[in-house]
Amino acid sequence: GESVGLHLPTLSVQEGDNSIINCAYSNSASDYFIWYKQESGKGPQFIIDIRSNMDKRQGQRVTVLLNKTVKHLSLQIAATQPGDSAVYFCAEKRTGRRALTFGSGTRLQVQP
Amino acid sequence: KAGVTQTPRYLIKTRGQQVTLSCSPISGHRSVSWYQQTPGQGLQFLFEYFSETQRNKGNFPGRFSGRQFSNSRSEMNVSTLELGDSALYLCASSTGTSNDEQYFGPGTRLTVT
After folding, report:
1. pLDDT at A57
2. Distances B11 to A76, B28, B110 between C-alpha atoms, Å
3. CA-CA distances (angstroms) from residue A56 to A5, A24, B102?
4. What's the N-to-C CA distance of chain A in angstroms?
5. Interchain proximity A3–B104, CB inside 8 Å
6. In terms of CA atoms, which chain A residue is nearest residue B54?
7. Quick one: which of A100, A101, B39, B45 has the fewest CB in 10 Å?
8. Which CA distances in Å does B72 have to B24, B69, B86?
9. Among A44, A15, A34, residue whose Cα is nearest residue B43
10. Could you tell me which chain A residue has the CA closest to the CA of B101?
11. What mean pLDDT is predicted for residues B57-61?
12. pLDDT tens-digit readout, B16-56
């Protein structure tokens, strides 16, 4: 069943291409950032995180870039696969606080 | 190991009723956070419990409450349901330490008619 917003921005890419999903965060005090993937009918799944003392972090097929100057975060997915189709959320928090503040999400559609 | 489980998965209630949702965290995790997800507001933090104590609370009215048991299982309660409470309620389990990874359950889909 649907678990995400009806009017999400959508990024449509061809299988095998690279995807870039962007996020602007609001709280300059945030020092910890996470990307989540949410598939239909499931809860958000952790992809990768980054702390504010870094500007880039790489995982398996994913890279997160952080630009604190303009409060911008991006998620790059290499060689996008159909299984990557989902809604992607960025989240921010401040160390010591428990609450995650989520962005509004981007729907990624991978065309075979 | 088993993931986060939430029960029930789907629920239909009528305005004015109350509802209780349950979350069982990953074994060994002591922190449970609750989030509400709606199309209009997205994912919003409700509250977090650690070792049976509420540590953090979001900006929701007092109709939303929760508790945590000694085995770390948590429940949240919504009283006097309103149509706007229709949402996916997600719980997230973690160790409770700083910047620890939060593991989300599949959610409980609540529909208020």
Report:
1. 98
2. 37, 28, 5
3. 29, 16, 21
4. 23
5. no
6. A98
7. B39
8. 7, 5, 26
9. A44
10. A46
11. 96
12. 999 999 999 999 999 999 999 999 899 999 999 999 999 99
